[in-house]
Amino acid sequence: MWKTIFKIVLCVVLLGYVAFAFAFVHEENSKRICPGIDLRIIGNTLPDSVLRQGVNSQLAKYGHKLKGETIENINLKQLEDYLSTFSNFESVECSINPDSRLRITITPIKAEVRVFTDKGRSFYINRYGKRIKADAEFFIDVPVLIAPEKYEGCISSALSVIRYAGADPELSPLIAAYKIDGPNDLIIIPRLQGHVINFGDSTRLDEKKAAIMAAYRNVLPAKGWNTYDTISVKFKSQIVASRRNKAISRHGALEDDGEDLEEATLPDVANINTQNSAEDNG
Predict the structure, then answer these.
(1) Is the pTM of this model over 0.85?
(2) CA torsion sign, 90 to 91 to 97 to 100?
(3) Minimal CA–CA distance to 124: which of 231, 45, 184, 187?
(4) In angstroms, rounded to a whole number, what is the distance separating the alpha carbons of residues 254 and 218?
(5) What's the rounded Cα separation, in Å, for the pair 260 and 232?
(6) pLDDT digits (tens, 9 = 90+) for 41-97
(7) Phi/psi at 241 (5° precision)
(8) Which helix or strand (DSSP H or E) is residue 187 part of?
């Protein structure tokens, strides 16, 4: 019986010691001063200095002291909620390091395209279609899409084309920007100035890519690079073009003077590819 009593007393003493130690450590920790911020970026696609500058800019507007403040006066949940209000961040976690520094771990939103509307608005869109505010301090170098507000419903379709072109080593270097001219008229603005390409909708991607490459390799060098202002690959197995008979702005929107866009129908893609194969085979 005495052994049992001794064990019970020993357990009570040990539990009391643990509780006292925990309370003592907690009190001591709460008096610690935060010497600085440990900012960590997970999966960052931006230059590190750009994102850090943007985060620090938002922390300066937080309204509560962080560096030099006691640990107990730093509300981690409140800080997380504040930073999470910015659409540029996919997730935010705040904690205290063993050295008393405030650790802020941020996972940025991965934007796929920046959209400019005809009303002067600009925003980013991520892979899930979420819109992200285009803050200057969080500038992201991604493809540009010009989308009049009446065609904003076509953005998701345009994204599939932009994604496809961005992953293609031949197409990607050729493209400067994109513009939505209608539900079935996605315009590619090439880096090579003087013409634009009407890609149509988001169907038959491989076929349309082959048509663009055929036009660049076979048609335009033969017909002359300044012969056409618009090349269209939206029609099945055909490359259609309009002759250069109207002014177009430098890498801007097409200006339609009422003439038929389908003025000149160039050799079909199948024949061009067949000729290329024959030449390659000798």
Answers:
(1) no
(2) positive
(3) 45
(4) 24
(5) 12
(6) 887 555 566 778 888 888 888 988 899 889 888 999 999 999 888 767 778 999 999
(7) -145, 160
(8) strand 185-190
